[in-house]
Amino acid sequence: MSFATRGFAGHRREPDDRLPPGQTLVQRWPVLSAGPTPNVHTDTWDFVIRDESGTEHHWSWEQLLALGVEDVTVDIHCVTHWSKLDMSWRGVSLDKLFENVEAEYDYVMARSYGGYTTNVPLEDLLDGKAWIAIEAEGEPLDPEHGGPARLLVPHLYFWKSAKWIRGLTVMPTNDPGFWEQYGYHIYGDPWKEERYW
Amino acid sequence: MTTPLDGNVLAGALANLLVPDPTNLQARCTNCGQVAPIAEAVVYPDAPGLVARCRTCDHVLAAIVDDKDKTYLSLSGLSAIALPK
Amino acid sequence: MRLVLDVPTWPGNEAGTHVDVRLTAPDGYQATRSYSVATSDRGRVVLGIEELPDGEVSPFLVREVRAGDKLEIHGPLGSYFLWRPGQSNRPVQLIAGGSGVVPLHAMAAAHAAASDSTLFRLVYSVRTPAHVYFRDELAALAGPSFTVDYVYTRQAPPGWGGTVGRLTRDSLASTTIAPHERPRIFVCGSTRFAETVAAWLLDLGHSARDILTERYGGK
């Protein structure tokens, strides 16, 4: 049985009523990685949405930016109990990317350079709820934070905001991604504390 | 804190789940077929769980996720572990 | 820094094992890290701890912990990076980078305690003389069956006859037991140190089977 260690607080700070249950506010931005950081260059970056007919829709880096980059300020909540509030991001809304994609299926598998995957319902990516993010806090996304581009789905636990995003595959069933196979929740709503299976 | 460690660091987590501690045992990667002691895996400790990858091909060998009252153990990247009799 | 723990129920340990130290904050947040056991004797366990900048656990253990505090530990742990007396009569080469000397010191101490006569050699790479862990203990263990070669990467002690600088493939070759003597080799240090040294050892003709490594998170 564990007991509190005298004097130990860890890298954690005071609570805040804007925090979901079980979360603690941090100022710094922790780096979590489950594998080597892939080296992804914007000149060869290629983003693909694969729709239910198997058709692939591709965007180069320039084509992505040409869709329009917007500023967003959001809170992020990591399943390892830290939250960061009022983060400023820049990215391209997924509404723009899905504008000309036939998607009747309800689910999406996000796929990253380096092999990471995470599953998200399609409706959670649309209507201004998700972005392909390219900047955070005024700087281009650092590779350790998922640069050059990561998924940003701030209303779900942050493991859903896949780093080094390279594409989305529309799928008929809610198949689990990387962490969802290893014990984490299939959906991951921080306000309902959906951390594990 | 992105420096990966090695499979030696898994001994504590695995000793809670498997007896004896298997870090010295040979195991086979399902992806590339490499056979090596679990202690030689590349371990990423700063993820939402412990992730052990094959030192040869980076394939995920094992993952350990800690919930409050249970631990999720995946050995899905190991086709077999050689256990002593 | 050495941390001395009274663990009345400590079962004893083999040389090279570690413990997991788990810290718990008042809100239930926990952080666990592994530390090698330097020595243990009748319920007293000594850990060697390097403070990592930006670390979460090591700065707490180095700066905050006071005599009388209770810590949660799990161990002894590890069944791979171990030396056991009488296991083999092949010579043993130990190669340490920085605080990676802690488990290797434990092996050298166990070797002496067992009056084991297999040849032990230690190459110990360290930044400056002030960074040496267990200098007196290592000096006391030195003898016909155990020698220590220091490599100072930044600054050597006064009167040091050797060169100052990082370990190289050639200096490693000249200070370690030759491949034809088939030493069992234990390498412990930072990830970069362990990987560099292991690659040189393979290059020098040692067999991968004979090289055991343990990495820690520091630079």
Describe this structure in words.
The complex is a heterotrimer of chains A (about 200), B (about 80) and C (about 220). Chain A has one domain (about 45-190): Oxidoreductase, molybdopterin-binding domain (Sulfite Oxidase, Chain A, domain 2, Alpha-Beta Complex), CATH 3.90.420.10. Helix content of chain A is about 10%, strand content about 30%. Chain A has 3 helices and 11 strands, in the order βββαββαββββββα. In chain A, the strands form 2 sheets. In chain A, strands 1, 4, 5, 8, 9 and 10 form a 6-stranded mixed beta sheet that branches. A 5-stranded mixed beta sheet of chain A has the order 3-2-11-6-7. The longest helix of chain A is centred in the first third of the chain and has 6 residues, at about 60-65. Chain A is globular, with a radius of gyration of 17 Å. Chain B is mainly beta and about 80 residues long. Helices cover about 5% and strands about 35% of the residues of chain B. Chain B has 1 helix and 8 strands. Chain B has a 5-stranded antiparallel beta sheet, with no helix packed on it. The N and C termini of chain B lie far apart (about 40 Å). The mean pLDDT of chain B is about 90. The longest helix of chain C has 14 residues, at about 190-205. Chain C starts with a strand and ends with a strand. The model of chain C has no long low-confidence stretch (mean pLDDT about 95). Chain C is built from 5 helices and 10 strands. The interface of B and C includes residues 8, 9 and 37 of B.
Summarize the helices and strands and which ones pair or pack:
The complex is a heterotrimer of chains A (197), B (85) and C (219).
Chain A: E1 24-25, E2 46-50, E3 56-60, H1 61-66, E4 70-77, E5 82-93, H2 94-98, E6 107-112, E7 117-121, E8 131-136, E9 139-140, E10 150-152, E11 165-171, H3 178-181
Parallel strand pairs in A: 1-5, 2-11
Antiparallel strand pairs in A: 2-3, 4-5, 5-8, 6-7, 6-11, 8-9, 8-10
Chain B: E1 5-6, H1 11-15, E2 26-29, E3 35-37, E4 42-44, E5 50-53, E6 60-66, E7 71-74, E8 78-81
Antiparallel strand pairs in B: 1-4, 2-3, 2-8, 4-5, 5-6, 6-7
Chain C: E1 2-6, E2 18-24, E3 30-41, E4 44-48, H1 58-64, E5 72-77, E6 92-97, H2 101-113, E7 120-126, H3 135-141, E8 146-152, H4 169-175, E9 184-190, H5 191-204, E10 211-216
Parallel strand pairs in C: 6-7, 6-9, 7-8, 9-10
Antiparallel strand pairs in C: 1-4, 2-3, 2-5, 3-4
